[in-house]
Amino acid sequence: QVQLVESGGRLVQAGGSLRLSCAASGRTFSSYAMGWFRQAPGEDREFVAAISMSSISTYYADSVKGRFTISRDNAKNTVYLQMNSLKPEDTAVYYCAATPVWSTRATMTSRRPYDYWGQGTQVTVSS
C-alpha cells in the first residue's frame, strides 16, 4: 500500500504561482511513477503531469506545458507540482497518484495505470 497526502492548495490571483506537494508513505517511493491530475466542478478528472521513477522522463498536458513543472525528491518521498502563470481555468481539486508502471504518453496520461490516489487539495485562481 502507498498512502498519498497532498498539500499546498489555496486561493491565488491570476498570474500567481503555487507549489503543490504530495507526501508518500508505505512502500518504496522510488519504485513508483507519479502523476498529478485535477478535477474542476462538473468536469471529469484530467491529467496534468507525470514523472518517471528516476525523474528522467516527464509528460505534461498541453494546457499546462511551459507553466507547470513536476519534480520529485525520492529521499523525501515527495513529488511536487510547481504552477506558474496561473489562470482561472486552473481552478480545480488537484490529486496526486502513484503507479509501478512507466509507459507511453497515451498510457501515463490516463487514469488507468494509477493504483493509489491522494485525497486532493483545492486550488482556486481568482481573476
Tally of individual helices: 1
- Rg estimate, integer Å: 13 Å
- The first-to-last residue Cα distance is 40 Å
Number of strands: 11
Briefly note the structural class of the backbone: mainly beta
Whole-number mean pLDDT: 97
Order of helices and strands: EEEEEEEEEHEE
Main sheet overview: 7 strands, mixed
Rough shape? globular
- What is the beta-strand fraction? over 45%
Q: Which blocks of ≥5 consecutive residues have pLDDT under 50?
A: none
Describe this entry's structure for a reader.
This protein has one helix at residues 105-108, and strands at 2-7, 11-13, 18-26, 33-39, 46-51, 58-60, 68-73, 78-83, 92-99, 116-117, 121-126. The protein contains 1 helix and 11 strands, in the order E-E-E-E-E-E-E-E-E-H-E-E. By secondary structure, the protein is mainly beta. Strands 2, 4, 5, 6, 9, 10 and 11 form a 7-stranded mixed β-sheet that branches. Strands 1-3-8-7 form a 4-stranded antiparallel β-sheet, with no helix packed on it.
Key structural traits:
11 strands; 127 residues; globular; 3% helix; mainly beta; 4-stranded antiparallel beta sheet
Structure summary:
3% of the residues lie in helices and 49% in strands.
